[in-house]
Amino acid sequence: MNPYQHLTTGERERIFVMHEQGETLEVIGRELKRSPSTISRE
């Protein structure tokens, strides 16, 4: 079983919106329960 999981389209859209609103990677990651490094790669 693969331990990695791709971001969903919905998560990617949420990242875009939150980034446009000026949220930090840490805040976005906490909201989506993902690491900030995952968010930074989007």
TrEMBL record:
Source organism superkingdom: Bacteria
Name of the protein described by the UniProt record: Helix-turn-helix domain-containing protein
Pfam families, sorted: HTH_38
Residue intervals of the Transposase IS30-like HTH domain: 4-42
